[in-house]
Amino acid sequence: MYRFLLTPRWLGFLALALVAATVMVLLGNWQHGRYELRKAVNHRIDVTGTMTPVPLDTIITAGGTTGTPGPGPWSAVEWTRVTTTGEYDPANVVLVRGRTVDNKVGFEIVTPLRLSDGSAVLVDLGWVPAAPGGGAYAQPTVPPIPTGQVTVTGAVKLSESRGTAVDRAEGKLETRRIAVPEIAAELPYPVRGAFVQLDTQAPAADAGFKAVPPNYENDWLNLGYTVQWWLFGAMTLFAFGWAARREARGPRERGDRATPEPELASTA
């Protein structure tokens, strides 16, 4: 009944269906891996948000290596809460434009914190709105930055991808991404290899800085794609089986319209 499946035509259909289903399953597996990765990041944000801060030097050394403690991958230390003491360098404030908080576009203010060993770590002090009436990219009025020694506590953040050029406008550095290497190239001292998202500061930061909320990953989107690709793979094999069964049933059982036989002409 199903011997037609051994014909070159149907073997070709089967091979095509198997290849398509395999590709879809692999795409689903890749999306599932992305889901697990993003889920782990979100879990880390939740866990480290309540942890006791550790000294900055145990996480990001002056040479830029990382650890927990000791050497380790960057991803193992992101969102770890750290604390350190130093002095801000207001002459090298970095305005990071095009940043959105509460559906409003403004700037994040990143300032180098000079440490006792001569190096510095970039600290994201928070978000401020753009200058009124000047559009989303109009340079803001930066709230006062403390002078003298300050103790900061915050989360370790990795350098953002797709780093952009750093320009100097009106005496301040401007960029679109917090990319540590690009910013460090504009500063006259060594810079640690990651930056700190400020939580608290002593003395307290100016009230004009608005805290930047944690950037949770959209892991549910990847989970949805996972299910979608796996369903597509199953549907491909189901479609092949349905077509094969329909073919095996024959034209009459399928309900196909039979080709009428020609009538013989009558002779008088």
What share of the residues does DSSP label as strand, in percent? 15-25%
Q: Could you tell me how far the N terminus lies from the C terminus, measured between alpha carbons in angstroms?
A: 46 Å
Mean pLDDT: 84
CA-atom Rg in angstroms? 31 Å
Number of distinct helices = 3
Order of helix and strand elements from N to C terminus: HEEEEEEEEHEH
Relative helix content: 25-40%
Q: What's the assembly state of these chains?
A: single chain
Q: Which spans of ≥5 residues are poorly predicted at pLDDT below 50? A: 64-72
Strand order of the largest sheet: 2-4-5-9-6
Largest beta-sheet details: 5 strands, mixed, barrel
Your description of this structure?
The chain is of the alpha/beta class. It folds into two domains: 3-40 and 220-252; 80-213, no CATH class. It contains three helices and nine strands; from the N terminus they run αββββββββαβα. It has helices at residues 8-48, 180-184, 219-254, and strands spanning 54-55, 81-88, 94-101, 104-114, 120-129, 149-157, 167-169, 172-175, 195-202. Strands 2-4-5-9-6 form a five-stranded mixed beta barrel. α1 packs antiparallel against α3 (219-254). The two termini are 46 Å apart. Mean pLDDT is 84; it is low at 64-72. InterPro entries: Surf1/Shy1, Surf1/Surf4.
